[in-house]
Amino acid sequence: MNRETKHSAYGYSMQSPIHVSGFHEERVYIENLRVEGFDQAPDIRRIGSNLSAETGHPIDVYEIKSGPFGIRTDQLFIDLYGASDWRAPEGYRLLCDRPAREGGEPERELGDELQEMIKRILK
């Protein structure tokens, strides 16, 4: 797969991030993410977050290294605000299904306070 195609795929860009619902789901997702062809857990490091122009909220950026001596390195983008789309990006697999919500908790939406804060930052 060439680099241009790879970065237009789900999870590989700010424009097409992985969607999870909240911090708990993000943590479960990251802990259960595996690179196709490798059984060992990859080395995963959160680089930070960037504000998405499309959604108006932060997108977390992770560096994933896998294989012998970190032979494969990717950056994946995760949106943890809103509805969850529990699937792995191309070249990856998940070891578990989406976690159940505690007490029937609804999917989280971006809170009004955070939305207002982001608007102030963007001005």
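Next protein, fold it too.
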Amino acid sequence: MMELFFLGTGTAIPDRLHSPAGLLVVAEGQPILLDIGPGTLNRLNLAGISTSALDHLFLTHFHPDHTLDLATLLQVFNYSPTAERTRPFSITACPGIQDFYRRLVELYPELAPLTYQLELHQVFRDEFSIGKIRIKTAPTGHTTNSIAYRLEDGEHSLVYSGDATAHGELVQLADKVDLLICECSFPSGWETEDHLNADTAGAIAQQAGVESLVLIHTYPPAQAVDLVAQVRKHYNKEVQLAVDGLHMKL
């Protein structure tokens, strides 16, 4: 079984129902956090998950709305009175993670690990495993190095797109997946080069033959329309618009 907690389903623009990016997936008893936008840790706490339970963070790219709470998390690991971290912590990310982390610690030297080992892993078109969970990555075209993640536990599969475009490799990565969690930044007809709209998100899901689709990363123009109805013009299976706090099981 995979359990999903949608911690942040929007963009950097403040919205009551759609906060910056964050998704927690619990598979084989292993919690994996995908992206860590501002406020993610508080929403993680509201979901009943402690930061001490985390061992793995996956980053899709380095924009602030997907990464800002990383600084807070590393601070928590070092400076939780009587509960400082001792287990290793792993960050898996797109190319550039070492430089991103170096610059972060240059800005905030106190974030460097004091009592634990921090492991940085760079991936792009890669496959690897965490226990029995199989993970595959592929570029999305949002930035030169942005990636999406596919997770499989032997029974179920999902893809988390991060930020994506129609020019990435999301169709191939999401082939026949049970659930595609896909950014849909704008409504149908909206011209965009570095994101998806209702037309392109629906087309990707249809081409990939996914069993169900959940829309995330919506800007206000997308929230002002019936986005699900627009996507259904291109995709003929189950689709829903995610809001913060959505809880799903596969």
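About the second fold: The mean pLDDT is 97.
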